[in-house]
């Protein structure tokens, strides 16, 4: 049975207290934010998308950024009230099962707001911990220390039924033994979900010129592979297997909102730089909003939204996007889902010779129901996809 990808709403809050040197997200530092004005703009753009998707049942809401825990809880509450007023919410089985996630940083001031966010309707917290080592946190440009991080996790556990946190590995000078010790400590706090990302250097970040000059040296390919394998092994033994390349969860604790992305479901993107995918009258459209916060705000106040003209996604491109997203998942991509999105079979969408070689090489598995990346395939997914979709 093909899983229902759901229908999500993503809310982008673009502001941070400071810009982390590894971050290439659409985040900005501002000394002053007009919260009432921003609240009104988010609600107005929500109305714009509600008009276009009337009747769709919302299964998840995700407040991302930036640092959404810098939002006023009243803004979160107003957004959720508007969503409930404009769309049916939760699954079609009935019951109050809408997943509402909010990203937070574990500084003491923001942690004090956790209870207010819970009262506003947030039922899942995702925290940007990134490391449990003070030296590493300083290197990563984080504003908290390890004690504040663990304190915030403990408060989250008392406040929310579901929570997760992020860690970054493959940092300069990091050994497998040191990472295993840090990850083992994290497992004292990780209850249902843990996201573990390998440090990458992206153009436009503060780390990029340092790396280009050779002043910042990451673990080589062999060590990075060993760190990845150590991560998978340790978390598997702890009962948090990877359901996606970088995301681990106990069964039933997976992020429903992110599963909507990876299963290539539809989602609305609201806020500066937010992207979306919407199926309207049988055609898939890519939506995107202007990245600059002030320009987005002015356009919403003038036009009711800050989005560019939606772009149709051709059926072949839909197949490629579905494979690029879905092969990140352990469950893989349903062949029925591919046919639904593209009107074509797997053989018509990929290079047959490459598919055969990848299967024989142990990187992909294909049966009548689905195509899946193996453990080895997920570790090398960029190369697998490049060969498969060439």
Automatic annotation (TrEMBL):
Its cofactor is [4Fe-4S] cluster. It is found in: Cytoplasm. Probably acts as a heme chaperone, transferring heme to an unknown acceptor. Binds one molecule of heme per monomer, possibly covalently. Binds 1 [4Fe-4S] cluster. The cluster is coordinated with 3 cysteines and an exchangeable S-adenosyl-L-methionine. Belongs to the anaerobic coproporphyrinogen-III oxidase family. HemW subfamily. Residues 1-238 form the Radical SAM core domain. The keyword Nucleotidyltransferase does not apply. It holds the Pfam family Radical_SAM. Keywords: 4Fe-4S, Chaperone, Cytoplasm, Heme, Iron, Iron-sulfur, Metal-binding, S-adenosyl-L-methionine. PANTHER family: COPROPORPHYRINIGEN III OXIDASE, RADICAL S-ADENOSYL METHIONINE DOMAIN-CONTAINING PROTEIN 1, MITOCHONDRIAL. The gene is hemW. This is Heme chaperone HemW. Gene3D superfamilies: Aldolase class I. It comes from Azospirillum isscasi.
């Amino acid at each position: 049975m093909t899983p229902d990808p759901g229908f999500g709403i993503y809310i982008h809050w673009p502001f941070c207290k400071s810009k982390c040197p590894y971050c290439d997200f659409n985040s900005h530092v501002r000394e002053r934010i007009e919260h009432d004005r921003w609240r009104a703009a988010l609600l107005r753009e929500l109305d714009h998308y509600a008009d276009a998707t009337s009747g769709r049942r919302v299964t998840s809401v995700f407040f991302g950024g930036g640092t959404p825990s810098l939002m006023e809880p009243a803004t979160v509450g107003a957004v959720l009230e508007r969503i409930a007023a404009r769309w049916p919410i939760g699954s079609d089985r009935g019951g109050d099962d809408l997943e509402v996630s909010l990203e937070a940083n574990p500084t003491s001031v923001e942690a004090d707001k956790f209870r207010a966010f819970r009262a506003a309707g947030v039922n899942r917290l995702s925290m940007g911990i990134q490391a449990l080592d003070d030296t590493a946190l300083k290197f990563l440009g984080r504003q908290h220390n390890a004690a504040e991080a663990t304190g915030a996790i403990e408060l989250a556990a008392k406040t929310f039924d579901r929570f997760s946190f992020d860690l970054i590995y493959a940092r300069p000078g990091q050994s497998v033994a040191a990472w295993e010790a840090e990850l083992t400590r994290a497992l004292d706090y990780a209850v249902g979900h843990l996201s573990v990302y390998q440090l990458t250097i992206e153009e436009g970040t503060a780390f990029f010129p340092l790396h280009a000059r050779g002043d910042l040296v990451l673990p080589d390919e062999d060590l990075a592979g060993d760190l990845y394998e150590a991560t998978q092994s340790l978390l598997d033994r702890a009962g948090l297997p990877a359901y996606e390349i970088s995301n681990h969860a106990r069964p039933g604790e997976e992020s429903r909102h992110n599963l909507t992305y990876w299963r290539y479901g539809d989602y609305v993107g609201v806020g500066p730089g937010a992207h979306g995918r919407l199926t309207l009258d049988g055609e898939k459209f890519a939506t995107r909003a202007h990245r600059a916060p002030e320009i987005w705000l002015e356009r919403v106040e003038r036009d009711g939204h800050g989005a560019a003209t939606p772009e149709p996604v051709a059926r072949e491109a839909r197949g490629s996007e579905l494979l690029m997203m879905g092969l990140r998942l352990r469950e893989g991509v349903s062949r029925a889902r591919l046919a639904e999105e593209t009107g074509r079979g797997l053989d018509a969408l990929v290079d047959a010779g490459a598919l055969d070689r990848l299967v024989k090489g142990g990187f992909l598995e294909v049966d009548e129901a689905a195509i899946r990346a193996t453990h080895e395939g997920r570790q090398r997914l960029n190369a697998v996809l490049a060969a498969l979709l060439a």
